[in-house]
Amino acid sequence: MQVDIGNVLSATPGVSRDGLERLDDDVAVAHERIETGRADAEHGYASLNLPETVDTDAIRQAVSRFDDPEAIVTVGIGGSALGSATIDAVVGGDAETYYLDNVDPEATTSLLESLPLSETVVNVVSRSGTTAETLANFLVVREAMADAGVDWADRTLVTTGESGNLRELADQHDLPALDVPDGVPGRFSALSTVGLAVPALQGADLDAIVAGARAEADRLSGSLFESPAYAYGATSYALTQRGASVNAFVPYTESLEYFAEWFAQLWAESLGKDGLGQTPARALGATDQHSQLQLYRAGPHDKQVTLLRPRERDDHGIPETDLEGLSYLGGSSLGDLLDAEFEATEASLAAAGVPNVRIEVDRVDAQGIGELLYAMEAACVLYGELANVSTFTQPAVEWGKKAARGLLGGGDFAEADAVADKTRLVID
Amino acid sequence: MQVDIGNVLSATPGVSRDGLERLDDDVAVAHERIETGRADAEHGYASLNLPETVDTDAIRQAVSRFDDPEAIVTVGIGGSALGSATIDAVVGGDAETYYLDNVDPEATTSLLESLPLSETVVNVVSRSGTTAETLANFLVVREAMADAGVDWADRTLVTTGESGNLRELADQHDLPALDVPDGVPGRFSALSTVGLAVPALQGADLDAIVAGARAEADRLSGSLFESPAYAYGATSYALTQRGASVNAFVPYTESLEYFAEWFAQLWAESLGKDGLGQTPARALGATDQHSQLQLYRAGPHDKQVTLLRPRERDDHGIPETDLEGLSYLGGSSLGDLLDAEFEATEASLAAAGVPNVRIEVDRVDAQGIGELLYAMEAACVLYGELANVSTFTQPAVEWGKKAARGLLGGGDFAEADAVADKTRLVID
């Protein structure tokens, strides 16, 4: 992976070369802290050790019972779904993959009606075994299988912590079970059992994914000028400090749409605390040039734009044409057009003084997605160190969980009472 | 459609009841301007007349040649795709629908390989008939059909302006052709031929969609306290002025995911100019509570959160369970859980002082999506009047279009030269 930060040097907001060099002293200190955390396998920092600690053989072994499923349904939410979906969108396989990562009754019913349940593997993921959405969906899927005469215990894989409901179920019914590793928060778990079970079911090359991650781990160093991951994290931090409160994250390839979503969770949940943080805004190139670019160029100067592309991809030629004004397209290719639009958009942002960062990988494949996932995680951890926030926690979501539980009759919570006290000003 | 702005009154940033009443004088003036624009069918304002001017019979007639297609591929980008995708995601039909709204060669190849081309309708949409991405994709699809021995002219529907490449093709080959209406920018065209052709192909109830839109049109008035659409537009404007530079738009139903994307284009491209605008951030409830909520609650107070749900939906029960700590879910339903999470999240944002607006529709159906589309368009036009921006133009995207064209050898453009001059600072 390569990062080009040339277009932040004289943008508004921007970071000068001198500013980056001063910041590099802090990067050195942060890197020391991160290395200590890794050496001690501290909570969160342990995530950056996954390229060394993940056991791909154990993952392959756990899924070996399932022979060539037609469909794989992952039941999990947030970090229990996004990393897996991100990797699967890149490496793929023969099975259709689905994610029950919401509790929308219409979407769930529709999915269950269309699935070949007897040829489907259910992959349930929850560290605690008590995540309300995940367990509700699991109960629903299990019932659908029973109604269809399918033995759910034959078709279920569990990824969970050392104890809890799912672990007990796995023990009772002899389900294959993978361990969520210690010290790895959900949004940092893509390179663990959590993110790799579906690719393993698909027969993907897990070791290539891990090798990509390891390559980026090996490049972490005490200087942002030597590590692409830290260059991205430090530059994003400096731009946020200077007013880039939004990070518009724009991959120029559809296979990385989920990666942008995964990044949005990583960035928002890790760095959004103490009144700080940078808001991720997901977009897709070249499509969103026809949707968001007007705002990025001519709206408030409160954004960093991250443009991401592979250096190589399989291409598709555009036929010759005599259509008026379009002969220049003929004999070219969709890839040429997409690359021209990438470079044109980057230059158009620079011309408007909007700071932008280019990220490139060789290819969007198993190795490439490993590089990207690891590098963005390391970038995020570095940003968190520089901002002095508690990167690996998410305390602000507890309030709503208690309120929801209280509303459903799951206990007495003061938070649930607040719902009834809502101030209303209804225009009907 | 109903809007509840109670949770903006004492938030940070917030708008007091007095502030809203002062703003209402400006709303009255803006409403007058909008009504004049509608009466004269001025560019842009004419969009708000679509519930009266759209000819649903003509749309049904144009698609009547195509009998029950297995698949529909819309070739269009930005406003030529998003409105159609938004409506189709709600009203649906028997055909699988796809959107070639990008120029990703890998995604395009993969789609063409999987399509039943002889049973597919191709719906090409471009007002000018020269949109590079759309015409390139159309050439590619046409070639794929020829290679498969399918007569493309038998399977193609065109929606375009009075002249240009697509109009000429339609005339030459006797293709069914729909007119893009005058005075309607792409992002305001969902309720026209552009957005309704696919629902017509699907046999959906176009008149119910239009009736929903008309119901909201009938409620526009000179006061934000009397019109839900204006309440949303005026409140969003006032919050932006006070520091809510981001609008996190969060439907609590998967069938409105495209609607959030459509809204993002409407809001960004219409209002993002002259250094002004509010950045849309798309999210999905309840999923993104596990991704974005930490940031919304505990990050910078630079956001308005828009929470959107239907009052009724088809539900799905959750089986009884003896799993530890989860008995409260049993006998409940996924819809109950989703509603509890909606209300809990809303209250949790209020408790953190984050301004949030609740939008509700009776159901997400043909009528409901008509209401939502029209109301957000009217809200956007009102916001544009209050901010004094040129709502219906998108001048900032021209620079990049010229640069891309120059890079592809489509003429000499100074913008293309700027690409070569890029400042580089590469960390590799």
Automatic annotation (TrEMBL), chains A, B:
The record's InterPro entries line, in alphabetical order, gives: G6P_Isomerase (IPR001672), Phosphoglucose_isomerase_CS (IPR018189), SIS_dom_sf (IPR046348), SIS_PGI_1 (IPR035476)
Q: Where is the active site?
A: 269, 290, 401
The record ties this protein, via Gene3D superfamilies, to: Glucose-6-phosphate isomerase like protein, domain 1
Instruction: Tell me the superkingdom of the source.
Output: Archaea
Alphabetic keyword roster: Cytoplasm, Gluconeogenesis, Glycolysis, Isomerase
Signal peptide range in chain numbering: none
Query: Which pathway is this protein engaged in?
Result: Carbohydrate biosynthesis; gluconeogenesis; Carbohydrate degradation; glycolysis; D-glyceraldehyde 3-phosphate and glycerone phosphate from D-glucose: step 2/4
* PANTHER family registered for this protein in UniProt: GLUCOSE-6-PHOSPHATE ISOMERASE (PTHR11469)
Write out the function statement from the record: Catalyzes the reversible isomerization of glucose-6-phosphate to fructose-6-phosphate.
Annotated protein name in UniProt: Probable glucose-6-phosphate isomerase
Protein species of origin: Salinirubrum litoreum
Tell me the classification of the organism that encodes this protein.
Answer: Archaea, Methanobacteriati, Methanobacteriota, Stenosarchaea group, Halobacteria
Q: Which gene encodes it?
A: pgi
